[in-house]
Known about the structure:
This is DUF2007 domain-containing protein. Pfam families: DUF2007. This protein is an alpha+beta fold. It has one domain (3-135). It has helices spanning 12-23, 34-39, 44-47, 59-76, 99-108, 132-135; strands spanning 3-9, 29-32, 50-55, 87-92, 117-122, 128-129. Strands 1-3-2 form a 3-stranded antiparallel β-sheet. The protein is globular, with a radius of gyration of 15 Å. Residues 79, 81-82, 84, 122, 124-125, 127 line the site of zinc ion.
Amino acid sequence: xxxxxxxxxxxxxxxxxxxxxxxxxxxxxxxxxxxxxxxxxxxxxxxxxxxxxxxxxxxxxxxxxxxxxxxxxxxxxxxxxxxxxxxxxxxxxxxxxxxxxxxxxxxxxxxxxxxxxxxxxxxxxxxxxxxxxxxxxx
Length: 138
Ligand SMILES: [Zn+2]
């Protein structure tokens, strides 16, 4: 069976939670490169993070589930400037593919080691803002 990369994650915890989401919906999936990332987080960016691999016949449904999770998250984190929910949590430099991993780590306040700064970007007004949940520990 062929497997396709559905998403990539910066941290072990994020990747496992996403995989758990899909498994609970009977999606056949597994994580690639998770050992490398767990042992040496510095290497994560070099190898592109942990890859969530999904069985090809189920990829559409898997992406749908991931998308739904994203929309739920956006609805809870509207842009403070204009109120739009058309926002994305992005790395600087931009790396929008990691939205789900970021979403999970924010919820759990997992504090995965990240050298890259992440901000929310509003696609309606262009406003960028930091995540308040992650910053409260200071
Ligand atoms: Zn906005």
